Amino acid sequence: MTDWKPKIVTFLCNWCTYGAADLAGVSRLEYPPHIRVIRVPCSGRVSPKFILSAFNQGADGVWVSGCHPGDCHYIEGNFYARRKFALLKNLLEHTGIEPGRLHFSWISSAESTKFADMARYVCQTVEALGPNRVMVKAGIAPSTMPACQSEGGGCCCR
């Protein structure tokens, strides 16, 4: 399976990391095209159910990124996120999903280079692990990522 490339679902904070991704694009910084971006109001808004659902739908990796701690536009959202994700990472390891499949980062809107570097790192780490076999062992065949269901025809995930 030499043509396999990872599917990585990425939840990006609207105020910080999404801005860094936008700046990386405008600056023509290169990073792998294997990430599917989902723009969220705050990293604290990302439920562990979203992450589990991404793995269930066939994602090989998940990356959540938001504002630096102390710089959240919603005061404490990223602190809530950090607590939730520490617990979730332990749960995923217990279920057999390798720790390298789930990534978290704090990137401000001015850090486009850091965004591109982190995107490369996440893609390389997940690619080295290979396809997510845990769902296959559980009898859940990985599906292709579902089409965007956003309203108004503007796609937010490609």
TrEMBL record:
Signal peptide feature range: none
GO molecular function, one term: iron-sulfur cluster binding
Keyword set, alphabetical order: Iron, Iron-sulfur, Metal-binding, Oxidoreductase
Pfam family, one: FlpD
Span of domain F420-non-reducing hydrogenase iron-sulfur subunit D: 8-130
InterPro entries, A to Z: MvhD/FlpD (IPR003813)
Identification of the protein by name: Hydrogenase iron-sulfur subunit
Lineage: Bacteria, Pseudomonadati, Thermodesulfobacteriota, Desulfobacteria, Desulfobacterales
